[in-house]
Amino acid sequence: MKEIKTLAEGKEFKAVDFGKLSELGGFVLPLGPGVELKGKAFGGQAVGATGAEFSFQIFEPGQEGGFYHTHKHHEELYFFLSGTGEYQVDGRNIPVKEGTVIRVSPEGKRAVRNNGTEPLVMLCVQYRGNSFTAEDASDGDILQEEVKW
């Protein structure tokens, strides 16, 4: 089974490596006794994230996401990184390909499938819905320090 590798870490950061996205099929996510989801890896805990979760997933041609689902609190952003497929939300089918991004509110009924001929690679970012404020939009501080490479 494939594992996430730690590259570097310090008091204020952690960097990890999932490896080649084309090799995500080596990850196995245990869902319960005797139930595993091949090709999906969560990364929030791996990097020590405190405000969001994310996962990479690969779908082979003909593979479906496994389950139709909603969330209680979490909004999701789906970034399609390669391949082609179809995303269904609230009964509407949306063609997806490299560069497609879809946001779904917690209540949105969602599922994904690869109806193409190449692997479909997706990044999903999950965070608490309705939590971003106008104050958050200006949260960054530009520092007057020189970056030393």
What does the model show?
With 149 residues, the protein is mainly beta. It has a single domain, classed as Sandwich (Jelly Rolls). The chain is 5% helix and 46% strand. Strands 5-6-12-7-10 form a 5-stranded antiparallel β-sheet. A 3-stranded antiparallel β-sheet has the order 9-8-11, with no helix packed on it. A hairpin with a 2-residue loop joins strand 8 and strand 9 (92-97). The mean pLDDT is 94.
What level of helicity do the residues show? under 10%
CATH superfamily: Jelly Rolls
Architecture per CATH nomenclature, i.e. the level-2 architecture: Sandwich
Return the string of H and E elements. Answer: EEEEEHEEEEEEEH
The CATH class is Mainly Beta
Instruction: Give the terminus-to-terminus CA distance.
Output: 35 Å
Unreliable residue stretches: none
Overall tally of structural domains: 1
Tell me the number of strands: 12
Major beta sheet, strand line-up: 5-6-12-7-10
CATH fold-level name: Jelly Rolls
Strand content: over 45%
**Which structural category fits the helices and strands?**
mainly beta
Number of helices: 2
**How would the global form be characterised?**
globular
Q: What is the average of the pLDDT values?
A: 94
Taking all Cα atoms into account, the compactness measure Rg is 17 Å
Largest sheet: 5 strands, antiparallel
